[in-house]
Design a protein that fits this description.
Layout (H helix, E strand, L loop, with lengths): L3 H20 L2 H6 L3 H27 L2 H4 L4 H19 L3 H28 L3 H24 L7 H4 L1 H11 L1
Helix pairs in contact: 1-3, 3-5, 3-6, 5-6, 6-7, 7-9
């Protein structure tokens, strides 16, 4: 279709799937690797590249270079968060990387909800579809982080919220 946003969306789906696969414990079963390698490299790498894919998709889909021209340079700071986490993993600071990935996820979700809402209220039509499809998913990331940090209860709904919301997002 000659639209980069679709390519970035495919990357997002791949890394979301791998991330959920690894987090649910299937990585060891399917890839027969050591748990240390899985926990220290595969899981954080998939989460980092998942974050990059979301940022790339959003930038392309919402045409942020044009629609937020004076502020686009600040968008690069979101990439920087994930890049620092990537460097931390490579240099062996895995716990720091996990914490940074968590904070990057929260900051990214909040920023993308704000950007989508801002562009929607400015009348940018793709922002309407972005907010409809991705708004639920981005909120689910915030709920998931809150659950993992102990701020909300750990139950079947909160454990699976990312899966539920990504299913809704795919349909929308």
């Amino acid at each position: 279709v000659k639209d980069l946003s679709y390519l970035y969306y495919v990357f997002y789906i791949i890394f979301l799937g791998l991330s959920q696969l690894f987090l649910r414990g299937y990585g060891f079963t399917f890839f027969l690797t050591k748990k240390v390698i899985l926990n220290n490299y595969f899981i954080p790498f998939t989460r980092i590249f998942f974050g990059f894919a979301i940022l790339l998709f959003t930038s392309e889909f919402l045409q942020l270079k044009q629609t937020l021209k004076p502020y686009y340079k600040y968008y690069y700071l979101l990439y920087l968060l994930y890049t620092v986490a990537l460097i931390a993993i490579i240099t062996g600071y895995v716990l720091f990387a996990y914490n940074l990935i968590t904070y990057a996820s929260v900051i990214t979700a909040i920023c993308l909800l704000f950007i989508g809402g801002l562009l929607y209220f400015r009348g940018f039509k793709p922002a309407k579809y972005f907010m409809l499809g991705w708004g639920i998913f981005l909120i689910s990331i915030l709920i998931s982080v809150a659950r993992s940090r102990g701020y909300i209860p750990h139950n079947d709904f909160t454990v699976n919220i990312v899966l539920y919301s990504s299913s809704i997002e795919l349909i929308l």
